[in-house]
């Protein structure tokens, strides 16, 4: 496409002014140690493949029929798992689609929305797509979020929790504060990584998710995804939990855009994933354990590793030569993510891999340490 | 949900003002003769299920990884089949999503878009969603489209061809005329049903698709779907063909909304469908044959059947008591679509079913004929 001269004559002004989101690269070749897009290193529950295979065996010809437009079975399974009513659950084609519909449904042109200056880089893209002003609120020096900094008129606040790429967790007390102080704004808590959070060692079931608040606050909307903790990035399923009136707005917006975003196979596979609670719990713990050992090994190499509640770590190599380290790793087939942005350009975001992948990374970093050129950049 | 009191306090004005699309119902019970949503009566190519099963068997753990964001293999297969460059092909989550992105990418608030007054009822919904004015141009008395009626300033024209629910076909000569007369507007030809069109008996390969025009007119964009002729409504795949600059706008809009709309399984299944050209050709012909016999039988029952180029017929019962006929059929488990709208409320839109389904319909209609109450309404 690079040689193609693009003619924008027939484009809408909206199309001309877009700066699309650039996802982390998805190279397809083998033997790559892919630690750049926060995918789960473990496969999804075997029940997922079984459920999809069952649809193919027993009802392959049903692929000719439209799927359930509101994904009823999947929403019921989620409602039961999260102790909610079905009308408090919305699902979409990945949490990216859910977030797009959130921007269209709740945020206003008249009052800005607020988001941390360092966060998921799709938020400013959505703001542009839907013509709302996004005011970026600076993270504190230690990359934490201070809810007091959000005391200004707005139509919404969107916070990734745990935040990306920092991995830091905002407390439920702080989320309550935001919701109480902005009763006329929708507080969106994007919990893509929440299942990897833990308040204290060994306590994976402590209350960290704002889902526990939605019966109390009618203005809290929580988004989650099957792409991380459920190992289903390839199936494109995300969800939102909130007051039934918020969910109704999302449903109407969806049905004004695309009535059937989840195909039959994705609905069946995602439902099977939700119902396999044991597998889910086991995988969460494994990733959390691997994160802890990765953190320890990076720390031993003098990396400054932020306390992560996600399936990645955000780490600064001694000397801050993150860009050079990323390039050197790439030459060895290890891909991590470097953001060339103010405040964070000395850090690397490294996805927690399998024990073997993490070891390959650590071995490579140790070899780099011996490389004078990198070490002194 | 009917008892729930919806509180719109936190909704955007856009969300408050939506009138969402209402798809044809998808009842789940058995033994229903479902002739209401223009699904294909035949299953998809067996290669589709095989390709998906292969992904599950050989790469189930790859579901943990994000899919190819631009669906490269699928777009290549489509490009090859339609003799285009890959950069002239766009794919999305059903042609509904593709159409939504079309509205956002090309249609302007400053100049209206034009569409037939009787057409796919999602178009006015999209117009509302994206804040563009839609001017409805009346079909002729015989439900045909007169391109001369579109001679007015606009930023775009959208025409379903064959049109729904009429089934009538607009000629390529008329499409050329529209494109030539509106060089500053994008002419969208929504070819959801084009694969069932034929110019003359037995000549299914005659040029009826505007895909043959896109190298000649930089302002023609053609949308198609896997939901009808490829029997994959359950898989959610649609596509657009056009000049590379138009496709680039759609790609950017997609990547400002949702980077990964097609999951891994849908990409694999759709690609297998495209590659099985023999099955596709055979299914098209079968549906066309069944349409012809259904048309003959309805005509024999004194129905006025419009000359259909789709996988449905639009037919007026003698006496015009369409609503009563639809209700009476429903009592027998046969569902057809009735639109309670001006000009077409005396018609039924009936999906072409299997020979068995069509026979069940005809038998029921013959019984109704004997029912004096229905016959004289």
From TrEMBL, chains A, B:
<dbReference type="InterPro" id="IPR015421">
    <property type="entry name" value="PyrdxlP-dep_Trfase_major"/>
</dbReference>
<keyword id="KW-0032">Aminotransferase</keyword>
<dbReference type="GO" id="GO:0008483">
    <property type="term" value="F:transaminase activity"/>
</dbReference>
<comment type="similarity">
    <text>Belongs to the class-II pyridoxal-phosphate-dependent aminotransferase family. Histidinol-phosphate aminotransferase subfamily.</text>
</comment>
<keyword id="KW-0368">Histidine biosynthesis</keyword>
<dbReference type="InterPro" id="IPR015424">
    <property type="entry name" value="PyrdxlP-dep_Trfase"/>
</dbReference>
<dbReference type="InterPro" id="IPR001917">
    <property type="entry name" value="Aminotrans_II_pyridoxalP_BS"/>
</dbReference>
<dbReference type="InterPro" id="IPR005861">
    <property type="entry name" value="HisP_aminotrans"/>
</dbReference>
<dbReference type="InterPro" id="IPR015422">
    <property type="entry name" value="PyrdxlP-dep_Trfase_small"/>
</dbReference>
<dbReference type="InterPro" id="IPR004839">
    <property type="entry name" value="Aminotransferase_I/II_large"/>
</dbReference>
<keyword id="KW-0028">Amino-acid biosynthesis</keyword>
<comment type="pathway">
    <text>Amino-acid biosynthesis; L-histidine biosynthesis; L-histidine from 5-phospho-alpha-D-ribose 1-diphosphate: step 7/9.</text>
</comment>
<dbReference type="InterPro" id="IPR050106">
    <property type="entry name" value="HistidinolP_aminotransfase"/>
</dbReference>
<protein>
    <recommendedName>
        <fullName>Histidinol-phosphate aminotransferase</fullName>
        <ecNumber>2.6.1.9</ecNumber>
    </recommendedName>
</protein>
<feature type="domain" description="Aminotransferase class I/classII large">
    <location>
        <begin position="32"/>
        <end position="365"/>
    </location>
</feature>
<feature type="modified residue" description="N6-(pyridoxal phosphate)lysine">
    <location>
        <position position="228"/>
    </location>
</feature>
<comment type="subunit">
    <text>Homodimer.</text>
</comment>
<keyword id="KW-0663">Pyridoxal phosphate</keyword>
<keyword id="KW-0808">Transferase</keyword>
<dbReference type="Pfam" id="PF00155">
    <property type="entry name" value="Aminotran_1_2"/>
</dbReference>
């Amino acid at each position: 496409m690079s040689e193609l001269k693009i003619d924008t004559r027939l484009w809408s002004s909206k199309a001309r002014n877009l700066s699309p989101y650039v996802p982390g690269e998805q190279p397809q070749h083998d033997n790559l140690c892919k630690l750049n897009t926060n995918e789960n290193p473990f496969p999804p529950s075997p029940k997922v493949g079984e459920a999809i295979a069952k649809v193919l065996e027993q009802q392959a010809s049903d692929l000719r029929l439209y799927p359930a437009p509101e994904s009823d079975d999947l929403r019921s399974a989620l409602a039961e798992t999260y102790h909610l009513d079905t009308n408090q659950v919305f699902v979409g084609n990945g949490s990216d689609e859910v977030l797009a519909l959130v921007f269209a449904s709740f945020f206003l042109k008249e009052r800005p929305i607020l988001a941390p200056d360092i966060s998921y880089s799709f938020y400013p893209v959505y703001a542009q797509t839907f013509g709302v002003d996004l005011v970026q609120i600076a993270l504190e020096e230690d990359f934490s979020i201070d809810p007091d900094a959000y005391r200004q008129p707005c139509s919404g606040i969107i916070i990734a929790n745990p935040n990306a790429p920092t991995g830091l967790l905002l407390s439920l007390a702080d989320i309550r504060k935001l919701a109480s102080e902005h009763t006329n704004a929708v507080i969106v808590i994007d919990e893509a990584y929440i299942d990897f959070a833990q308040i204290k060692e060994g306590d994976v079931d402590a209350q960290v998710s704002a889902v526990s608040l939605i019966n109390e606050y009618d203005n809290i909307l929580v988004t989650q995804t099957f792409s991380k903790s459920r190992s289903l990035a390839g199936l494109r399923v995300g969800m939102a939990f909130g007051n039934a009136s918020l969910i109704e707005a999302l449903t109407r917006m969806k049905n004004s855009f695309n009535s059937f975003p989840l195909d039959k196979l994705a609905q069946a596979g995602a439902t099977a994933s939700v119902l396999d609670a044991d597998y889910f719990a086991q995988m969460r713990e494994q990733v959390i354990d691997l994160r802890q050992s990765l953190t320890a090994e990076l720390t031993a190499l003098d990396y400054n590793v932020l306390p992560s509640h996600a399936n990645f770590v955000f780490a600064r190599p001694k000397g801050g030569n993150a860009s050079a380290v990323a390039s050197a790793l790439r030459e060895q087939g290890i891909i991590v993510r470097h953001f060339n942005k103010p405040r964070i350009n000395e850090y690397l975001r490294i996805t927690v891999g399998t024990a073997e992948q993490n070891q390959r990374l650590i071995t490579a970093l140790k070899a780099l340490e011996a490389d004078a050129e990198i070490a002194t950049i």
